[in-house]
């Protein structure tokens, strides 16, 4: 396992992040505590140190299982990321949202479930369109200054909100977001319109969730294994099938699994990207870990980029049009430089 710096920080995390949303058997699915322990042990033995969870996952069971696993082990080896925002109880109207009251309550309860004194990376889970961003940033900075949180990050939030937040934090001397978690895969490339360019500008690492598009990019839907997917899902449409067929074709050329190709595509982007790979079975983790030994050629990347390309909309596509490229104004700039 190789390690990367997370955003504009000195925090070293493994190139694959272990997603733990399936730790716990609530709602009739997921990994038992024993299976979860087995998965985390194998991940750590492979050099993995980056765990992703949330207060809402399995109604807190995911955090509890992680806490029980880490308690007798070296806590400092692991980089533990969790989240706040979504409803985790129905006791009061402030038991959800981005507000400071919910933030402090959620973090205190997460620390108890995780059996730790600090959270390495705390994400705002989803933007609520209610709380002022300065309230969020000031609260998160207080958590960092109090030693309860080491770094802050943000998930599922409009690019303009994140940009405003990091700019405000820089101005005020507060902690800035170092990672951005969004859905990103060969089937979901819309973050390339605004979110990813914004993250690049601020030096934030992208941590894609659903990098395999719920398993669609493994090719299982092409084989008729529809599982729990809903009829009419975009992951079953003609475009998704065309993309998946290309993934499968490249996998066959390389002698690897389709999942390895789809994951590696997210890892070989020209920006810092660490995909989150979930597992409820040890075999799933073991299969995903093989991705680190796979390399896609420039030709493979081009084929995948072309088959999955999306319109960037305005102004992205406008900038690409002939005659609008910035270097076409070179003559104008030459005149300015000569003055």
TrEMBL record:
<keyword id="KW-0560">Oxidoreductase</keyword>
<dbReference type="InterPro" id="IPR036812">
    <property type="entry name" value="NAD(P)_OxRdtase_dom_sf"/>
</dbReference>
<dbReference type="GO" id="GO:0016491">
    <property type="term" value="F:oxidoreductase activity"/>
</dbReference>
<feature type="domain" description="NADP-dependent oxidoreductase">
    <location>
        <begin position="15"/>
        <end position="308"/>
    </location>
</feature>
<dbReference type="GO" id="GO:0005829">
    <property type="term" value="C:cytosol"/>
</dbReference>
<protein>
    <submittedName>
        <fullName>Aldo/keto reductase</fullName>
    </submittedName>
</protein>
<dbReference type="Pfam" id="PF00248">
    <property type="entry name" value="Aldo_ket_red"/>
</dbReference>
<dbReference type="InterPro" id="IPR023210">
    <property type="entry name" value="NADP_OxRdtase_dom"/>
</dbReference>
<dbReference type="InterPro" id="IPR050523">
    <property type="entry name" value="AKR_Detox_Biosynth"/>
</dbReference>
